[in-house]
Design a protein that fits this description.
By secondary structure, the protein is an alpha+beta fold. Helix content is about 15%, strand content about 30%. The strands form two sheets. It has a seven-stranded antiparallel beta sheet, with helices on one face. A five-stranded antiparallel beta sheet has the order 5-6-7-8-12, covered by helices on one side. A hairpin with a 2-residue loop joins β9 and β10. The protein starts with a strand and ends with a strand.
Length: about 240
């Protein structure tokens, strides 16, 4: 299970990084979920001179934060992911998000919050190796950015066997990004698996938890289940 935040528009990159740190340490965990801290790896994705850049690490984001060059991240799009590994075998840099995959002419990146232990079945695999990577493959293979609509994502998830906790994700391509809210209707932790959106003028924040340093509680809005928000990030 994980925490994520994405910012688009005019924002303070240092404040976004600190929001991710606060979530990773459990400082903003007002939800009902049993997981409060997320210490098992982290990743950042941003635009730099027209190119997507990523940074990954293991361990806690709080420990890594002082080593990150914030000046490189001062663009109009930034996403940060902090991770709590669901399975003990899935520890290490290769499991840190964002994950990436090429499909046709498109390079896709994804940050995922949740556990989807049955999605491997849609790929014809005998067993799951890493559910988030399998989720990315299932969603983007033979797809184009034009296919990425709410109906497309809902239909794909409707074909996945029950057993997963959440498909919340941030998908990114060179020209567009999407924040996707999805959890099964019977989840015991709807607050933990609900993304929150804050709109301030031309700046949008979407976060796994409301962050008071970015906006008051009344300014944050819970995203509806199966809601899709699209960001135009092409320059």
């Amino acid at each position: 299970m994980c925490r994520m935040i994405v910012a688009h528009g005019q924002f303070d990159a240092a404040a976004v990084l600190d929001a991710a740190r606060a979530m990773s340490c459990g400082e903003t965990a007002t939800h009902e979920g049993p997981i409060k801290q997320h210490p098992n790896g982290w990743g950042c994705l941003w635009l730099e001179q027209g190119h997507i850049r990523t940074l990954h690490g293991t361990g806690t984001f709080a420990d890594a934060l002082p080593t990150i060059d914030v000046d490189r991240l001062r663009g109009r799009f930034l996403a940060v992911h902090v991770r709590h590994a669901t399975l003990s075998k899935n520890h290490g840099i290769e499991f840190s998000h964002p994950l990436w995959r090429t499909s046709g002419d498109t390079q896709w990146y994804m940050m995922h919050n949740g556990f989807l232990p049955t999605v491997y079945q849609q790929l014809g695999m005998a067993e799951s190796r890493f559910d988030s990577a399998e989720y990315l493959e299932y969603m983007v293979d033979r797809a184009t950015p034009a296919d990425f609509t709410r109906d497309y994502l809902r239909d794909k998830m409707a074909q996945v066997a029950p057993g997963g906790s959440s498909a919340n994700a941030i998908f990114v391509t060179r020209n567009k990004a999407w924040a996707w809210q999805w959890h099964p209707d019977d989840t015991p932790y709807p607050n933990y698996f609900t993304l929150h959106r804050l709109q301030k003028n031309d700046t949008t924040f979407i976060s796994s938890e409301p962050i008071s340093a970015l906006g008051t509680a009344s300014e944050w809005r819970r995203m509806n289940n199966h809601e899709l928000h699209e960001f135009p990030i092409g320059e």
